[in-house]
Amino acid sequence: MRIGVTGSGGKLGRAAVERLRADGHDVIGFDLAGPAGTGFTRVDLTDFGQTLDAFGSVTARHDGLDALVHLAAIPVNGLVPDAATFQNNMTVSFNALYAAHRTGIRTIVLASSITAMGFPFDEAPPALPVDETYTSANNTYGLGKVAEEAIAAQLVRWCPDASITALRFTNVVAEDEYATFDRAGEPGYRRDLLGSWVDARDGAQAIALALAAARPGFEVYNVAAPESGCTAPSRELAARWFPGTPVAEDLGEFESLMSTRRIRDRLGFRAAYDWR
After folding, report:
1. What is the pLDDT of residues 17-35, one digit of tens each?
2. Of 32, 27, 126, 114, the residue nearest 72 (C-alpha)
3. How confident is the model at residue 186 (pLDDT cuts 50, 70, 90)?
4. What is the pLDDT of residue 256?
5. How many CA atoms lie within 13 A of 103 on its CB side?
6. C-beta separation of 97 from 70 below 8 A
7. Nearest to residue 43, comparing CAs of 29, 32, 55, 35?
8. What is the phi/psi pair of residue 30, to 5°?
9. In 3D, which of 140, 151, 196, 175 has the Cα closest to residue 12?
10. Cα 37 from Cα 197, distance rounded (Å)
11. In which band, very low, low, confident or very high, does the pLDDT at 102 lie, cut at 50, 70 and 90?
């Protein structure tokens, strides 16, 4: 397949491009900065005209895309004012999704986030591990992700043969960032992430699996390492962080409190990397 990847210069974007090319796909990166050459085109995704033009065709790059992986965004709150985070990310995501719709791209994988399901969890979730049925936004970044998922769910109604998969990524860790796990035994370490994390290369695996399994309709999957980034057993973490919250009887000893059961069972996701 010829696959466009927005945000190709980001941490997850770089890993996704590498993985998809290794799988034999023709990949075109779209971002504000990237390596010169046939695999990249500079695009300001806040400009719908540029986005539409880039997805339709680019001379000496491509004459049409089979699929889109949309990862581009301001990645967290705080880098710019809160309203600017929402406005930028919503504009970019609408432009990407609607340009894909207009240019006939029917397979889309969209980066959503743990921020669409309660982060930073000042309020206890309804049950643990938290699965894809729970949606709650507590900052403007998360609000944007909830809105993006809602837009995607409606677009597949407009085009019944379209497939859009939203992947709710937790904190993505690059292969040179494992030193942070030196703190894994601290009581509050990763509490706002439910103890979760995912290696960028495993995040790229989830993207590849979602593309391969694309079917008409809208789907949401959590993406995290199956085991937590903490040294304490998960049931102990649940009792410490969320006393009184129901916990699954079959919760594994170190199983992530951000559930990965759905992506494991439906897409066959198995993490290849572990900090332990």
Report:
1. 999 999 999 999 999 999 9
2. 32
3. very high
4. 98
5. 27
6. yes
7. 32
8. -125, 120
9. 175
10. 33
11. very high
For residue 129, cis peptide bond before it (omega within 30 degrees of 0) = yes
Structure tokens at 31: 């971002």
Give Cα separations from 87 to 71, 138, 260 (angstroms).
16, 16, 30
- Give the C-alpha distances (Å, rounded to integers) separating 240 from 49, 137, 195, 250, 257: 50, 23, 12, 18, 13
Q: How many C-beta atoms surround the C-beta of residue 164 within 10 A?
A: 30
On whether the CB atoms of residues 266 and 221 are closer than 8 A, the answer is: yes
For helices 48-56 and 82-102, give the axis angle rounded to 10 degrees.
40
Nearest to 258 by CA among 172, 136, 130, 123: 130
Overall pTM surpassing 0.85 (yes/no): yes
Position 133, amino acid: T
Please give the DSSP secondary-structure letter assigned to residue 220: E
